[in-house]
Specification:
By secondary structure, the protein is α/β, with parallel strands linked by helices. The chain folds into two domains: 281 residues, Ribonuclease Inhibitor (Leucine-rich repeat, LRR (right-handed beta-alpha superhelix)), CATH 3.80.10.10; 44 residues, no CATH class. It contains 13 helices and twelve strands. The strands form three sheets. Strands 1-2-3-4-5-6-9-12 form an eight-stranded mixed β-sheet, with no helix packed on it. A two-stranded antiparallel ribbon has the order 7-8. The chain has a two-stranded antiparallel ribbon with strand order 10-11. Strand 10 and strand 11 form a beta hairpin. Helix 1 runs parallel beside helix 2 and helix 10 runs parallel beside helix 12. The radius of gyration is 22 Å and the shape is globular. The termini are far apart. Keywords: Repeat. InterPro entries: Leu-rich_rpt, LRR-containing_regulator, LRR_dom_sf. It holds the Pfam family LRR_6.
Length: 342
């Protein structure tokens, strides 16, 4: 069976609308350094052009020259994806070369170790432009989790953080295997959320690798995953409930396996931003109280009630009616009786 991370024969480069897709390019870290330096030197165009169709790089074309031609003609780069290249920790030493226009960075499956994770977190501690960081499929161990937790305590710009499926590799049978971040590492990150009031989405264990019921081994993927640790669930619930969290979506594993799953109802009730637990299985949908608070939070019904803006109220009710979310309509009508009568 072909290794799913085999990069041979892959030389496509997608260039479109401010997005630079350099994944699966067999890049060396020195290639990335040159590109970052060129991007930083090139001034953004005075007038942003509408996105063109994706450009594909032919084997005869220079990667570097085509990247620069793209950025000077199309528009300034806001997203860079260098994922799925065996770059190692060295590439993280060039992050300071990124132009300030970049807000979305993908360094997934780059072979990053603890030193690389530390460099990224040090960069993000003072960075004021990156709002979305994706780095799944690297080697984030407990030491890496310490770096991430310290960064989250200080960073007030990042909105989305994706770090699931760490220690990904290929099993002896050629199938995918995954060793998620340890519970000790998760507990450190949970504690850090108490001090962060800007992060809106965090994904530590990808929901695609979890199932709503046993077995925890999927023969088609070769995945063997540990059971959900109730201590992890408790730590994240407490962190969200006892802080001014902005978290809207959290993925920490298959929460329906949490022995205290019913307590997530209280968390959703206390945290008006939270509306996604990373699982959409039958067990979640069957919990009417949980689904009610999910809907109320997703449509910002409590914020609308608190602010008393007529236009927002009408818009939210219309959206709830359109999608048949009766719980939200009932909540808004019941809690805005005085406002409606005016």
């Amino acid at each position: 069976m072909r290794n799913m991370f085999d990069l041979s024969g892959t030389r496509d480069l997608l260039l479109h609308g401010g997005q630079l897709e350099l994944g699966f390019q067999r890049l060396h870290h020195t290639d990335v350094k040159r590109i970052f330096k060129k991007l930083g030197r090139e001034p953004p165009p005075e007038k942003i052009q509408p996105p063109r169709k994706c450009r594909r790089l032919n084997k005869s074309q220079s990667l570097e020259s085509e990247v620069i031609r793209f950025t000077s003609i199309d528009c300034s780069v806001w997203r860079i994806n260098i994922g799925c290249n065996d770059l190692g920790d060295k590439v993280t030493e060039y992050l300071h070369l990124l132009p300030e226009t970049v807000t979305d960075l993908d360094v997934s499956a780059c072979g990053l170790q603890t030193r690389g994770i530390g460099n990224i977190c040090k960069f993000l501690t003072s960075n004021k432009t990156i709002v979305r960081l994706i780095m799944w499929g690297n080697n984030i161990n407990d030491d890496g989790a310490v770096y991430i937790s310290e960064m989250l305590k200080q960073n007030d710009t990042l909105r989305e953080l994706v770090i699931f499926n760490n220690h990904i590799g290929i099993a002896s049978n050629g199938l995918l295997k995954a060793d998620p971040l340890s519970n000790k590492g998760k507990l450190r990150i949970a504690e850090a959320l108490r001090y962060n009031s800007t992060l809106q989405m965090i994904a530590i264990d990808g929901p695609r690798l979890h199932f709503c019921k046993p077995p925890y081994l999927d023969p088609s993927l070769g995945l063997s995953l540990p059971r959900f640790d109730p201590e992890v669930g408790k730590a994240f619930r407490n962190a969200l409930e006892e802080s001014e969290s902005a978290i809207e979506s959290i993925q920490i594993g298959n929460v329906v396996d949490d022995p205290n799953f019913h307590q997530w109802e209280t968390t959703l009730q206390k945290c008006e931003n939270l509306h996604s637990l990373g699982s959409e299985c039958i067990s979640v949908r069957a919990n009417k109280k949980l689904m009610r608070w999910r809907a109320i939070n997703a449509l910002k019904a409590r914020k609308v009630t608190r602010e008393g803006n007529a236009d927002e109220f009408i818009s939210t009710v219309s959206t709830a009616v359109q999608y048949g979310v009766i719980d939200v309509v009932y909540y808004l009508m019941r809690n805005n009786v005085g406002f409606i009568s005016k």
